[in-house]
Design brief:
The chain is an alpha+beta fold. It folds into two domains: about 140 residues, no CATH class; about 55 residues. The chain contains seven helices and nine strands. Strands 1, 2, 3, 4, 5, 6, 7, 8 and 9 form a nine-stranded antiparallel beta sheet that branches. Helix 5 packs across helix 7 and helix 6 packs across helix 7. The protein is globular and about 50 Å long.
C-alpha cells in the first residue's frame, strides 16, 4: 500500500462554506448515491465565526447541495451528512475499483481540500489518470510506501491515534491533554508522557527515512 497526500480546489459547496463562514470542513467518509453523480459526504464542520445554526442554514441555501442532515454538537460545530450533485475526486476514488481507503480529508487555510488516501501500487496510476481525465488540477504533497509501526508501542499507537482523531493536533485544538486523559481513562501526566515518547519515535523515523 502507498500513502498519497494531495491537495485540490474544493468542490463548490465546501469552498463557499469555507470562505463565507470561515468554516473548517472535515470529510470523514463518502459514498455514491443511486442518483447519477450524487455523492454523500459524512462531515464534521466547525467555525470560530459562525454558529451551528448559521452553518446549517448556509448549507441549505447552496445550489449544489441536494440534501443535508446535520446535528448540532457544539455552539459552532455540526456533524452529519451532506449530499451534493458532484465530487469529482470522490467519484474517481469510488470508480477506481482498487484497494483504496480514504482518511479524513479537510480544508486548509486557503480553502484548498487536502486528501490523504491509502492505495495499492497498481491502483495509484488508475486513480491519477481519472483525475487527469476529469481535468482536476492536483498537487501531490506526499507519496510514500506504508511502513510498519516499529518503534511505537501498541499503547502509544492507541493514544496517538485517539489524540489525532479527537482534535488534539487541530488548530485550534478541539481537545486538550486533560480532556483526552479523561476520555481514555488515563492520568493527564501519563498521557503527556505517552504522547511525548510516541511523537519522538515518529519524528525519529521520519528523519531516518529521509536520509
Amino acid at each position: 500500500m502507498i500513502q498519497l497526500q494531495f491537495s485540490v480546489t474544493a468542490e463548490s459547496w465546501i469552498e463557499k462554506l469555507c470562505r463565507d463562514s470561515f468554516a473548517l470542513i472535515k470529510v470523514m467518509s463518502v459514498k455514491a448515491e443511486d442518483q447519477a453523480d450524487r455523492i454523500t459526504h459524512f462531515v464534521d464542520i466547525s467555525s470560530e465565526k459562525s454558529t451551528a445554526e448559521n452553518l446549517s442554514k448556509e448549507l441549505r441555501t447552496l445550489s449544489d447541495v441536494t440534501e443535508s442532515d446535520l446535528a448540532r454538537v457544539g455552539a459552532n460545530r455540526v456533524i452529519g451528512s451532506v449530499t451534493s450533485n458532484e465530487c469529482v475526486v470522490c467519484r474517481a476514488l469510488i470508480e477506481s475499483k482498487t484497494n483504496t481507503f480514504i482518511a479524513p480529508a479537510n480544508t486548509e487555510d486557503d480553502c484548498q481540500m487536502n486528501y490523504k488516501v491509502y492505495i495499492s501500487g497498481d491502483g495509484l496510476p488508475i486513480f491519477l489518470q481519472k483525475l487527469h481525465k476529469e481535468g482536476v488540477v492536483y498537487e501531490i504533497v506526499d507519496l510514500s510506501p506504508l511502513t510498519s509501526n516499529k518503534g511505537i508501542t501498541a499503547r502509544q499507537q492507541k493514544v496517538l491515534k485517539s489524540a489525532l482523531e479527537l482534535g488534539y493536533y487541530d488548530f485550534p485544538k478541539r481537545i486538550n491533554t486533560e480532556q483526552l486523559a479523561n476520555t481514555l481513562g488515563i492520568k493527564s501526566g501519563t498521557v503527556s508522557e505517552i504522547l511525548r515518547r510516541a511523537e519522538k519515535n515518529v519524528i525519529k523515523r521520519y528523519f531516518e527515512a529521509a536520509e
